Amino acid sequence: MQKIKQSHMNQPKITNYAPLLVAPAQVLRGENILSQLGDAISPLARRCAITNAKLGKRPLVVGGNKTLEIIHPYLEQIVKKYELKTTQASYLPDCTESSLSRLKELAASHQADLIIGVGGGKALDTAKLLAHQCQLPIVTIPTSGATCSAWTALSNIYSEASAFQYDVALNRCPDLLILDYSLVRTAPQRTLVAGIGDAIAKWYEASVSSGNSTATLTIAAVQQARVLRDILFQKAATALENNQSDDWREVVDATVLLAGVIGGIGGANCRTVAAHAVHNGLTHIPSAHQALHGEKVAYGILVQLRLEEMLQGNQLAVSARKQLLEFYTSIGLPKTLEDLGLGNISLCQLRQSAEVACQANSDIHRLPFNVSPEQLMAAMVSTKELSDSLSAKAIPES
Ligand SMILES: [Zn+2]
To answer: Could you tell me the pTM of the whole model?
Structure first.
């Protein structure tokens, strides 16, 4: 008996581990670092094993109309020096299947051998997925601090009407990320505020989906998410006051880089929960499109905490929500549907977004309790509600 047990214990447990896609192969950051674009992309050039032709000389640059204009002078400078043949294309109207098939045709006709994505999250998601589908190297150049898309091996697909459809796991993180603070500084401040909302969600979602994990890398990712939250609590307000300050650069590093690190280390084990599910539901309301991704996610965190409070009686969620309400007030993140510009939506639209958020495959079901669309609707309209007894109390430590 003893012997059988022993041999059973010695048998290796067979587990299929997903590949680790932790970080871009190279990250360059600094003021005006974009002027080094040519030197930075030239190592990506290599010779084709079959024809011995030089690869990496025919970049296809994908971005929004405005960002393509911004990058144009930089590209002009390097085109001659590095003998590049570049072409540019807009990802608009959105990161959709039709945009991707149009860009794939362009990549083929241009004989593109490198994709450069420049812009916000949707432009970068499109460029990354295009490179993935064409099996080409990818360079990401974020133009705002609104998301960590420049870092991650993930792209979100939207419908023609900009409603969230599904996400696609890519086979690697970008080959090169260029974070130019001078470029990010030209973006409206609202984009960095939204990025703070998206980044802070990592803690509230990862601690619910993976807080009890015993896996080394998942524990590390959840702890990094807590560190990220604390950095943002400490530095967000001062960063936003002065975009020339060290705090501003640290906050950009937090939203663009550290948020990506957490996704990279945590991978599929550190997934989004209700905050992003609420965001996904809201994208099905046309008037929600003027609110940025991170703004909808930030509101979604409050909805998630409200659900934990209403359905689980979780008092920690109450104090966390109170702390966030104060934080949001100090930096200008939306606390209610009204703040998102959705004060006049119909009951039917609210129900539709709640139903999308509660679909069977939604990440909202990573919460440790069931949520119905009716319960979600109740939480969505009461994100600011605080009982008198609580609002009178000092904020407990979370
Ligand atoms: Zn997000």
So the answer is: 0.90
